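Support request from a user on the community tier.

User writes: "When I paste my structure tokens into the form, the page sometimes reloads and wipes my input. The last time it worked, I copied everything first. Here is what I submitted, just in case something in the input itself triggers the reload:"
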């Protein structure tokens, strides 16, 4: 058993610009349909939620990257960040090549300008 961690912080304005400049193509490439549905329901705060999930995916990638043969083994949409009934975020790994991950704990946070994510993974 190994414990790995990953952290990422991003400027919300960068995610907003990526979404607006690509006419939604960025969203379709990075996020799953469930993530898009969740973020779009947040109306004026949707960019904060997209940014937090982007940071979460980056944090997961950082934690598992040492276990990947090459970075192309995993895509953005192989990592899905959802919320349980209490609103707590959790991670679903949708790539069967990564089934050796036994547990992932994630924390997301955002303010007006930044979003941050931290993950702890047991492999």
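"...and here is what came back when it finally went through:"
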């Amino acid at each position: 058993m190994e414990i790995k961690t990953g952290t990422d912080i991003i400027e919300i304005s960068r995610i907003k610009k990526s979404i607006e400049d690509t006419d939604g193509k960025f969203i379709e490439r990075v996020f799953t349909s469930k993530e898009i549905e969740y973020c779009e329901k947040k109306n004026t705060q949707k960019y904060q939620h997209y940014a937090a999930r982007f940071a979460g995916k980056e944090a997961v990638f950082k934690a598992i990257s040492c276990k990947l043969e090459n970075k192309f083994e995993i895509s953005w949409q192989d990592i899905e960040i959802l919320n349980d009934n209490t609103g707590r975020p959790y991670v679903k790994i949708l790539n069967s090549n990564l089934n050796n991950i036994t547990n992932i704990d994630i924390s997301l946070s955002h303010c007006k300008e930044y979003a941050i994510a931290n993950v702890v993974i047991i492999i």
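Agent notes: The reload is a front-end session timeout and is unrelated to the input. The CA atoms of residues 30 and 75 lie 8 Å apart. The first helix runs from residue 12 to 21. Escalated to web team.
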